[in-house]
Amino acid sequence: MVDYHSIFTEEALAELFPAHNADRFFEALFGDVEEGAYDISLVFSRANGNKLHFEFQLKQRVGKCLACNLTYGLPEVFSRHPVININGLVKGIEALLGDKERFADWRLGSTREISSSLHVVPLTIQIEN
User: Fold this and answer.
1) pLDDT at 30
2) CA–CA dist 119, 110 (Å, integer)
3) Which domain holds residue 97?
4) What is the pTM of this model?
5) H-run or E-run covering 51
6) In a designed cystine with 30, which of 13, 35, 70, 86 is the match (CB 3.0 to 4.6 A)?
């Protein structure tokens, strides 16, 4: 059995999806990084059967309002935005596994509001049987 938590560490995922991607995302989206209301990080949540569950965590920036932003449309935006680059990110996650597993597909879920300062966008990756 693969110990996914030892592979998908905070450090490993931060290399695949660095913190500065949030600024790059807001620069591309709004033309100004100051318009960004949240930081974005990728976190491994759990493995369940033949699925790996990750989350894009959207953490409110100081002096900004996360709840005032349109985070509920983000799965659609993230799925095709070149800065987020989900396809490349999933390939990078797969590469961390070496020859242990191959991926069949991925899916972004609906934005969930954990608190007024934290929203998450689930990323589920299907492992090939």
Assistant:
1) 85
2) 10
3) 4-127
4) 0.92
5) strand 51-60
6) 35
User: Closest Cα to residue 39, out of 16, 21, 65, 59?
Assistant: 59
First to last CA, the chain: 14
Count of domains observed in the chain: 1
Alpha carbon distance 3, 28 (integer Å): 36
Tell me, what amino acid is at 34? E
φ, ψ of residue 31 to 5 degrees: the values are: 85, 5
Buried b (16+ CB within 10 A) or exposed e, 7-46: ebeeeebeebbeeebbbbbbeeeeeeeeebbbbbbbbbbe
Residue 99: predicted pLDDT: 84
Predicted confidence (pLDDT) at residue 101 exceeds the cutoff of 90: no
